[in-house]
Design brief:
Blueprint lengths: L5 E9 L6 H9 L6 E2 L3 H5 L6 E2 L12 H5 L3 H16 L10 E7 L4 H14 L8 H5 L3 H10 L4 E5 L5 H14 L5 E8 L4 H9 L29 E9 H6 L6 E10 L12 H13 L9 E3 L8 H13 L8 E2 L2 H4 L6 H15 L1 E2 L21 E2 L6 E8 L3 E9 L1
Parallel strand pairs: 4-5, 4-6, 9-10, 9-13
Antiparallel strand pairs: 1-7, 1-8, 2-3, 6-7, 8-14, 11-12, 13-14
Helix pairs in contact: 4-7, 8-14, 11-12
């Protein structure tokens, strides 16, 4: 029995550069940066070493009704905003509840709810802790709340694999659709972890850029002077379904998820394998599932976090698969604009990859002052054409814990 083709019929995103998927895409092509100084009292009070991040451009509690927003952690708020956009974009599919599934992801979950509740407990006592604290902070809160909002009863599953999380959730959704568990799946990821504790921790491990004097130019993947990543937040969602189901209801089709690979490095809890063995294997698995060869790939949305070690490691992993051709494929490092959404980043970059295939253009990688000779990807500070005809692209996500996830997409 051949595997059914799984297509994308709706997209949604709320990001540091736009409150919707179209707005985020336009801003990305225009070279926008979402990194800005953090205007919160706690930045100065706690004397944080990093004073900027890429906060969402549109706050989710300004989009959702107040009673809805009040019972959700910001991570679930972002998820619901992006999912509502994607659902409407897909034409609000008429699907039986038992045939609608949710595959969602987060890297950290409700950190704001958890730590705010801890402050309340210490300062005001246990009677003042909200009854909804645990349902709001749990990592599966976003998936559960999307299931409730859309009436999804097939299943509601959560992936938590750090920065690989939402790419894994998309791959899982494809597997679940092919296995017949659902007819339509809401897939994606979210993160709302720009919090003093995460900033302090990432800064302590020397992972964050410390360009406090120039936040907009701080994330500079492949540049010789890169010094770390920029924290971001937001969510992105894909509506996925079997092609026959989508065509039967007359849905528009952006493209298809044709392959996916998930592996583990078993090397270090935070550092990726410098030889890129696990990452390369994930790429190979995605291409094999797509019944494609490395020569078929016309665009790569690379993980490229702007860290001194991570960028060259990713280059070496891809060179293992593509050989010298890796220097010829248009590559985008979109975290230069959006910052790093951790568990939400794979879904956002999936949206960007799909739109790149639709429009035949690879988005720019901004802020490169001089390209590192150890990371000689074909990147550009301007949009790059990726040619005409059928396209195949991959999007890479790698996370703490040694998680590697790669998804392969084709144009419609």
């Amino acid at each position: 029995m051949s595997n059914p083709r799984i297509v994308i019929t709706g997209i949604g995103a709320t990001s540091p550069i736009g409150g919707t998927a179209p707005d985020s895409w336009s801003a990305l092509l225009g070279g926008a940066s979402g990194a800005r100084p953090l205007e919160h009292d706690w930045v100065e009070e706690l004397q944080l070493p990093v004073t900027f991040a890429a906060e969402a451009l549109v706050r989710p509690d300004t989009v959702l009704a107040r009673p809805v927003a009040k019972r959700l952690d910001p991570s679930s708020q972002f998820a619901l905003v992006a999912a509502m956009e994607a659902w409407e974009d897909a034409g609000s599919p008429d699907v039986e509840p038992d045939r609608l599934g949710v595959d969602f992801a987060t890297g950290i979950g409700g950190v704001w709810t958890l730590l705010d509740a801890w402050d309340t407990l210490r300062e005001k006592g246990p009677r003042r802790v909200m009854p909804m604290t645990v349902p709001m902070l749990m990592p599966n809160s976003a998936a559960g709340n999307l299931s409730l909002h859309f009436g999804a009863r097939a299943y509601a599953r959560t992936v938590a694999s750090a920065c690989a999380s939402s790419t894994e959730s998309i791959i899982a959704a494809v597997e679940h659709l092919r296995d017949g568990l659902a007819d339509v799946v809401i897939a994606g990821g979210t993160e709302a972890a720009i919090h003093p504790i995460t900033i302090a921790s990432f800064a302590s491990m020397q992972a964050l850029s410390k360009r406090n004097d120039s936040p907009a130019t701080a994330s500079r993947p492949t540049s010789v002077d890169r010094d770390g990543f920029v924290m971001g937040e937001g969510a992105a969602v894909l509506i996925l379904e079997r092609e026959d189901h989508a065509r039967a209801r007359g849905a528009k089709i952006y493209g298809a998820v044709v392959g996916g690979g998930v592996t583990a490095d078993s090397y270090h809890i935070t550092a990726n394998d410098p030889e890129g063995v696990g990452a390369a294997r994930a790429v190979r698995m995605a291409l094999e599932m797509a019944d494609a060869s490395p020569d078929d790939v016309t665009h790569i949305n690379a993980h490229l976090t702007s860290t001194p070690v991570g960028d060259p490691n990713e280059y070496q992993a891809l060179k293992t698969i593509f050989g010298s051709r890796v220097d010829e494929i248009p590559v985008s490092g979109t975290k230069s604009s959006t910052g790093h959404l951790l568990g939400g980043t794979g879904a956002l970059e999936a949206v960007f990859t799909i739109l790149a295939l639709r429009d035949g253009v690879a988005p720019p990688t901004i802020n490169i002052t001089e390209q590192d000779p150890d990371v000689p990807f074909r990147v550009s500070t301007e949009p790059q054409p990726i040619g005409s005809g059928p396209h195949l692209a991959i999007s890479n996500s790698f996370g703490f814990g040694g998680h590697n996830a790669v998804a392969a997409f084709t144009s419609a």
